[in-house]
Design goal:
- The complex is a heterotrimer of chains A (about 300), B (about 525) and C (about 300).
- Chain A contains 11 helices and no strands.
- In chain A, helix 4 packs antiparallel against helix 9.
- Chain B is globular, with a radius of gyration of 26 Å.
- By secondary structure, chain C is mostly helical.
- Chain C is elongated and about 75 Å long.
- The chains are: A mainly alpha (about 300), B alpha+beta (about 525), C mainly alpha (about 300).
- Chains A and C meet through helix 1, helix 5, helix 6, helix 7 and helix 9 of A and helix 6, helix 7, helix 8, helix 10 and helix 11 of C.
Amino acid sequence: MLSYALKRLVTVVPTLLVIITVAFFMMRLAPGGPFDSDRALPPEIEKNIKAAYDLDKPLVEQYLLYMGRILQGDFGPSLKIRDFSVGELIASGAPASMELGIAAIALALVIGVSFGTLAALRQNSGTDFSVMSISMIGIAVPNFVMAPLLSLVLGIYLDLLPTSGWGTGELRYKVLPVIALALPQIAYVARLTRGSMVEVLHSNFVRTARAKGLRERLVVVRHALKGALMPVVSYLGPATAAVMTGSVVIETIFGVPGIGTYFVNAALNRDYPLVMGVIIVYAVLIMLLNLAVDLLYAVLDPKVRYS
Amino acid sequence: MLLTTLKHAAKHAALGVGLALAISGAAQAEKVLRVGNDGEPQSMDPHYISTVQTSRLTDDMFLGLLTYGQDGKPIAGAAESWTISEDGKTYTFKLRDHVWSDGTPVTAEDFVYAWRRILAPETGAEYASLLYIIKGAEEVNGGKAGPEALAAEAIDDRTLKVELTSPAPYFLAQLAHQTAFPVPKHAVEEFGRDWTKPENIVVNGAYKLVSWTPKVEATLVKNDKFYDADNVAIDKVIYYAMEERTAMQQRFRAGELDVARDIASEQIDWLRENMADSLRIAPYAGTYYYVFRCDKEPFTDARIRKAMSMAINREAIVDKVLRTGMLPAYSFVPPGTANYGEPAYADFKGMPYGEAVEKAKALMADAGYGPDNPLKITLRYNNAEDHKRIAVAVQAMWKQIGVQTELFNTDGKIHYADLKQGSFQVARAGWIADYNDPQNFLFLMESKSGPINYSKFNNEEYDGLMAEAEAVSDLDQRATILREAEEVAMEGQPVAPIYYYVSKQLVSPTVVGWVDNVPDKHPTRFLDLKQ
Amino acid sequence: MIHTTAGSDGLAAIEEYEGRSLWQSALARLLRNKAAVASMVVLGIIALLAVFAPLLSPHAYDEIYWERIQAPPDFEHGHWFGTDGNGRDMFVRVLYGARVSLAVGLLATAVSLVIGVTYGAIAGFLGGRIDNLMMRIVDVLYSLPFMFFVIMLMVVFGRNIFLIFVALGAVEWLTMARIVRGQTIAVKRKEFIEAAQAGGVSNTKIIFRHVIPNVLGPVIVYMTLTIPQVILTESFLSFLGLGVQEPLTSWGVLISEGAKVMEFAPWMLVFPAVFLATTLFAFNFIGDGLRDALDPKDR
């Protein structure tokens, strides 16, 4: 399995190369440039500014220049936040995003798996129905409604938590964004768990375990849950990606200084180097997470063999 | 043993309390202004700035020859006095005896250095064109002449002589803009692009950057070396970057901000009802308008442009759709603009709306369009709730005169790129003045203005009048000529002005010294907090 | 359309594999599920409302009532859901929004289903290098922020509502492919597949006859999650200006407009949000019901 992991790691490089290339050219083909704004620049100024950022060179040359810089670990300057390099911006934003994302996924897993299991054990009962309904609120209410609603109720009406902001990273600032970010994922995890749990509970080996007279709790925890978690594990990769993109809205609404907000702003601003930087970070994270998920899969299901 | 421990503990506790008291005492004495800024600052370097959100910070940190006063009007800044030559083209400034925050004196050379730097082609400064009024500036910026071609000269350490290309009464006002700020030559040369990092930055204004966490806040503290530091009351100002208006408003509501520099305009009714003591709406030097593509069918026909402009019920848009206190616009230059007087209004101002619609229908019929032969056009706007609501309203208004409008919205970059390239029929645009003068509005319709003349309006009479006004140094005469030019524009309607902008913000009643003003400038040095 | 074919193929395969009575008994079981039946009725009503929207209200979806801008629900003038910030009737707009949202949800999901199931099953079943390569491709696509992809499409081909379906479907299939692949890897180790392989049945046949039907459960569960996801994504796009153009609307657009005024014009948020939430709940219950009904082991 170690050699499998290593092999996968080796493929990260060419994959990344493809991603950078595709993203680079796709973005440049999008109409509108970084310096188009409500006041059109005089031609000579536009010329100067493009020259300052090498944007006047042929696209292929720009691409090669960019790749050259990337190889040296230089993500280039931000075209909009001109006092910071993209590297600095990402370094300052990534920790908040990661912290938020990890906390949200952990919360979603704990609550989602519990809810899903509970629902599956009491399949088609009132408990099943109400637990699943509650968890579904997260996907039935868009996050751009849920987030301001949470902020309004808990931040202003009840005055329990800060409405938004990050302070110096105190816990109270993180509660609302984490909940808002986790809510949709709770629903997904709960549903997946319930679905596969129902299936597993009806499977032969659980029936056998039961027939053997094992205690129900033992059956559920030892045997059923492990099998039922497979789809949840395979959903972890997408969940992370979803949380990363979900954080775009959440970070904006709660004023969290993460890279999620950079992404949308940079895309809308055509801040090419910043968009590329965020894409690369996302891509690496997603690839590593997928690898981790696959390995986890192998651990959970010994039947899956990697060569 | 136990006793000693307890004693120790008590002693520690007492010490702790004392310390805490001392700290809170200090905190009470320190006046901190918390400002919600509706955008991330771009840079602390005045040469790399193009947004007002950024200029709020640099205005606090740098002092131009002139600077914005409490009421937004330019007052003496780094220059304590100046003389203007007879022909209005040569300015000689006498610098105030003051120092940079590191103790180095501010010299005339710092200004020359700064202006050469912003104009140098390799700097790639977006806003460099604002200095084009200085002789030689355009050539330097275009790479056609070396930096020494700029007609700005340090006669001695405290005397600066500047020559202009034409007598421009707005030049003094322009000097308060960040493009004309000095930069500390010694620091820039030592640190290069890193000179604005908190540990390196050197300023000559009232505040100095101490920390900047992107997307969170930038903190400025009082600069003790500032020449007027004795009269600066606020010790520290924190600018929180908040793109999301609703979130900013909530933070203000929760008491986490003293000032919010914008409001969520959809919530205006609620604000009026519940936060009237904080809500500040004031005229702002800008015009919101629709632009017609004048060099392409069907808008080559002035009758169609006029009919469509007439059919816009500006009062309904302002009072019913927006409700944020804007004024309906019938001129391109907002009333109250300096060096101007009353603007030239379109002749349908004051006409009852029903009559205007009838006249518009007649004009459309003249141009060959009517119910049987409707004019089909596309109206473009960039994404924003207000733009959308206005477009939807205008679509319905144009329907009455037989114009079928398709709405098309895109993100801002695509919108402005297409405006620049002229790929639109009718589009939404807006203009906020960089300096308080009618020329800063009217030049937008001059054919020589290039890409920023979105309408591609090309009218000899208009261009002639504008050129004439440029050469005139007498203010009244100049105003008369410019007004004639605006009359031409309002008759030809290459643009349909819709409303004059207002600045909208929330200012806590505890903030003292906040004066609403047209340029919407509120330097922190003039503010104070009630304890 | 292709979606239906694939779906019925799958069902047919189950029938063949499990015997003739399966489909009928599945239907019977589905009909015994009260939540699912209720959901189908609710969805049916919403769909009917959407189709017959123009007949139900005296107002047009784009007519502006200047004297009643952002007015609360009012029966005198027939604004049952109030009016929006432009003075347009919310009831009609919510129903017109239903048309767009439902269409986007269903069609985009169909696109994602066809691509995702086929792709995932092939990758998982064939395994080895091909699987590796195919999943790397998915990884690459996954790590590309699709907003650019959609912006590109909109710009290159013009703004077209069908393009939204395709674009969203083409994005959503990735997760579907992964889930199917994961399930396939688990399923293909099961005895009956090994038996079929040993019996010399072709891979294509095995995939469509045995693998896909057996991964149908999780796929349906995920599908019911994809529809709401697509509807929400559409709202995000509309929000960025890449969705439907005014005066057309969708639930997502209405909700994002309503969210901004939730405190003092709640009708602008509540009505579209209730419709959206009800629809999403309904899809979920139906999905659950289907899942239970189709589970061949639960007999």
